[in-house]
Write a structure and sequence with these properties.
The chain is mainly alpha-helical. It is built from nine helices and no strands. Pfam families: Sigma70_r2, Sigma70_r4_2. Keywords: Sigma factor, Transcription, Transcription regulation.
């Protein structure tokens, strides 16, 4: 969303008379982008839809606390990433999986997901990405798939650009090693 448009929507979000319509614009504009970011983290379509709803619910119930110091998109991405991490931790606990283990349960769900239309190479890439720690996985997905700027990621994660570049570099190396280990 262009800066001017985002500023206008933020103004409308602060006005009780226009808040609902403005939030509907936010959902329309950011819904698909947030869905795909969430989907890359949790892999399953239904889980991603549920987490997207949770993200917008949290945003709506906390809209009065949005101070406008960061971009609206940054605030929404933060909520979405936190929702994903909470969900994944809950899934690990239910599946008795250590945080250090590969999230194999996600891969199994992806294989059974009727909405996944990837081939064997895409499945292997997803398997490689699942070997990454959560934050590194999120950074990798944002940079590799969305070509998001490090500055924007820095606002989302509250981390320096240098740390994010290092995280992405390490993630790429790990993914490359995984994909080439049997060659």
């Amino acid at each position: 969303m262009q800066q001017y448009i985002e500023e206008e929507i933020i103004k409308q979000l602060r006005d009780p008379a226009h808040q609902r319509d403005a939030f509907a614009q936010v959902v329309n504009f950011y819904g698909e982008k947030l869905y795909w970011q969430i989907r890359k983290m949790v892999l399953d379509h239904d889980d991603a839809n549920d987490l997207l709803q949770n993200t917008f619910l949290k945003a709506w119930t906390n809209i009065d606390y949005f101070r406008g110091e960061a971009k609206l998109s940054t605030w929404l991405y933060k909520i979405a990433i936190n929702e994903c991490i909470t969900f994944l931790n809950r899934q690990r606990a239910q599946n008795n999986v250590s945080i250090d283990d590969t999230d194999v349960f996600l891969l199994e769900r992806l294989k059974g997901d009727e909405y996944f239309d990837g081939d064997a190479a895409q499945m292997k890439l997803q398997e490689a990405i699942l070997t990454l720690p959560e934050k590194q996985r999120a950074v990798f997905n944002m940079k590799y798939f969305d070509d998001m700027k490090y500055e924007d990621m820095s606002e989302i994660f509250g981390t320096s650009v240098g740390a994010l570049k290092a995280s992405y570099h390490h993630a790429v190396k790990k993914v490359e090693e995984f994909l080439t280990k049997d060659i």
